[in-house]
């Protein structure tokens, strides 16, 4: 159990580092609202993963103390924090990964939480996870435009419904449907 928690904490630290680097790079290249939202999502995600990894590290330390045998190993180290009266009734412990917590089981069937994992870890991780999801969703949605799109240089301008089409500067003029075909065109007029 301890080794799994330690590997999870190290993996979380590595993931948080990668997300932080990608978030900083995205912030330096941000061009407009979607770029900034993407950078914020990456950095908040890095914080959420780092917070969870920090909690796993605390939980791993509590498990290491609980599994340490030898003189004075009963009750387990983290379960002694509840006081001598509760500690005398402890017969085991449980570890929860969501939310991160270390619980001591009592012989009478009850349980109590220890302070092994700091109380700020779960709320901070949840808050940063929600910020990550919100910024990511907003960055992925296309931005609405209040103005009509403008034509680019390489695209021919579009014709208005009541006006004849205009030719692109690199193309010969085309015949309008009300005009007879010119000598340049071998095609019949479009009706």
From TrEMBL:
Bias (Basic and acidic residues): 143-155, 167-179
Name listed for the protein in its UniProt record: Integral membrane protein
Domain of life: Bacteria
Spans annotated as Disordered: 140-191
Chain segments annotated as transmembrane: 36-57
Annotated keywords: Membrane, Transmembrane, Transmembrane helix
């Amino acid at each position: 159990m301890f080794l799994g928690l330690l590997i999870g904490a190290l993996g979380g630290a590595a993931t948080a580092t990668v997300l932080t680097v990608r978030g900083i790079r995205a912030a330096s290249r941000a061009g407009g609202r979607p770029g900034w939202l993407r950078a914020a999502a990456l950095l908040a995600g890095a914080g959420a993963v780092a917070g969870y990894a920090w909690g796993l590290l605390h939980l791993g330390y509590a498990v290491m103390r609980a599994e340490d045998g030898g003189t004075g190993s009963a009750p387990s180290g983290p379960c002694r924090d509840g006081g001598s009266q509760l500690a005398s009734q402890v017969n085991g412990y449980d570890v929860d990964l969501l939310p991160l917590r270390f619980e001591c089981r009592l012989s009478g069937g009850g349980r109590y939480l220890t302070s092994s994992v700091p109380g700020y870890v779960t709320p901070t991780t949840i808050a940063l996870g929600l910020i990550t999801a919100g910024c990511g969703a907003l960055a992925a949605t296309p931005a609405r435009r209040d103005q009509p799109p403008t034509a680019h240089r390489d695209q021919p301008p579009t014709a208005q419904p009541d006006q004849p089409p205009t030719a692109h500067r690199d193309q010969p003029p085309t015949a309008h449907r009300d005009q007879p075909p010119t000598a340049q065109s071998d095609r019949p007029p479009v009706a």
